[in-house]
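Subject: Interface between my chains keeps coming out wrong

I've been trying for a while to get a sensible model of this assembly. When I model each chain on its own everything looks fine, but I need the whole thing in one frame so I can look at the contacts. Pasting all components below, labels as-is. Any help appreciated, I'm running out of ideas.
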Amino acid sequence: MKYLRVSPYALEKRHMEERREDMKKRITALFAAGILVVGTLAGCGKAKDTDTSAPAPAQTTKDEQSAAPADQKDTQGKKIKIAVLPKMKGENYWDACQVGAEDAAKELKDAGYDVELLYDGPPQDQATNQKQVDLLEGWIAQGVDAVAVGCVDASAISPTLKKAQEKGIKIVTFDSDSEPDARDLFINQASYEGVAKALVENAAAELKEKGYGPENPVNIAIMGQTKTDTNVEAWNSNIQELIKTDEYNWMKLQNPDSDIYYPGADEVETQTQAGTLISRMGEGADKIQCAFGITSMTAPALGSQYEASTNKPPVDKIVLTGVATPNALKSYILNEQNPLKFGVLWNTMDLAIWRCRRRTSWRQEISPQIPRR
Amino acid sequence: MDNSQKKNLKKLMTTEFYLLLFLILVLLFLAVFAKGFYDLSNLMNLLNRFNYVLIAAVGMNMIIITSNIDVSAGALVSVLCIIAASLGKQGLPIGVFLPVTMAAGAVLSMINGLFITKLHIPAIVATLATTQLFQGVLPLAVNGSIYDLPATFTWLAYDAKLFGIFPASTVLMLVVIVTGLLFMKYSKFSKKLYAIGNNKNGARLAGVNVDRTIVIAYTIAGALYGITAVIIGTASQRVTTTMANGKEMTFIAAVVLGGTSTAGGSGKLIGTVIGAFILSLVSPAINYLGISPDWSDAIMGGIIILSVVASAVNIKKKRRISAAPGGR
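Reply #2:
Try treating it as a single job with all components included. I did that and got this:
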């Protein structure tokens, strides 16, 4: 799996194009895998069958293999309602997901499908399971055809998802999974190990450049968000596993109680705790030399709190990094006086496009001409 | 010990005095057990948090003294953050968006005051309603957040440092707190606030324009929320619609911890200052002590309960003394 290593060089066009090519290949491979799954899904799925007046089983299988026109016939005159439920609204990463979903919906419309996209989620500080359930209940009552969810709490949301499935609604989870039996498909944008590896590997390389290594060990800190985030916590535990291996065991997590931060979904609290973490950074065994902000809120918070800090820890002695959109990190990365020099991410907008198209034309998806922004 | 000395000692044994004692003990404890807590960068980080909590708490203190309350403060500050950010996004400097945000805060908070006085709605109900209103309007106006804010917006947090050390929000805090302390001590207006809190009808009979005083208190508080909003908002390049939701409890807690009774009519601003400082201390202190942050809220709650119980006991004692025959 390929990750975006957002660096000043990566902002150059040439690299961008190279990366796009890579991304295309990767997405294509993902689609191929996805089709297998969906093939099985469609075989036993009823939602689509009831959508259409055409004889179901033959038609559905045909959908997947034949060209778009067959598909068009299939869904003609019937509005497909696809609901997308992010963990939270109005935040860089999720906004990118929204853009992707809207693009995909528009494309489908251009292709002659009658698609309605519903996009709603909890506000940032209320990114709770209850808010997600409330929205889901509303959509179940409305009778949508498919829901794509980025789950705040895997186990708590599953009963509602199962209820939706019973009504024939297709459930796809993305970004952060539910319990496996409560959804039809989980789109894992990046493997948990992969994200952790990309973070640790690149951070280790930078730390070595700054004179650390097996002879000169470092202390690390991790900023998650809440303890129920499936994906974030998976990255978190994978990072902790990785730094136990021989290759990275010079990166130490001294005290999980104080060196792993859970500021919650509150922006101000995130900033405050990031500020506390920055003030604990610097040279020396009782300080922290490397901080991972592993959510799209905490990574930029580290960058911004470094800028705001008085008595900044020296830029050539510490490393800041995290998981976030390039947009959220670019000003820190471009500032030479800021130790935040790279971030890790998959391509959010492609994720959204891929997700939204699942139920319809597969032919189009695997074609290499995926329009990009 | 003669009588006057005893009196002086009694005068000293106020809630504020005990609080200060508690604060000093905590600071000593941290000096011993929390290594690196007194690093300049941590102190300045703490100071910044203290600044915005205190500025809003000064406003909240005035409201609570009149035996009213404002639970919409958090939501209102969120609205003001968005107002500041939308101006900042246009590249306007702080010289423009700070006064505008303060004015907007004053107007919106005045609405609270008008609801309470003109429509005779209890303060908690009125401000709960406006909380919903503020929270409800924001998502209609802004989709979650305003981001990619320019350097002119984050100037206050990133670049503006007093003597190259203190966050510039300290200047705002000092201006507010010095004015506030003088104002609460010497102005006629502050006497009216206490009078209303003690006995609303009594104040009215004594010729105080109760309604107008309350509306003005809310308006001033609103302007102060505007300053808090600018400090909170400029801390990063992104301002969300829920920036300060829930922060009203911190503001109220700072006031209550500082010895101001929610029943109104009593409490000093200096207590609020200490209260705000203690509350700003808890979260970083816990982190430096190496304890899990899960304790932070519990410890804060414990401190507030302790303080409320202590002041309740104090009041009871005073009443007993004054009720006793021959008592003062």
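Reply #3:
Confirming on my end. Chain A has two domains: 18-189+349-366, 192-345.
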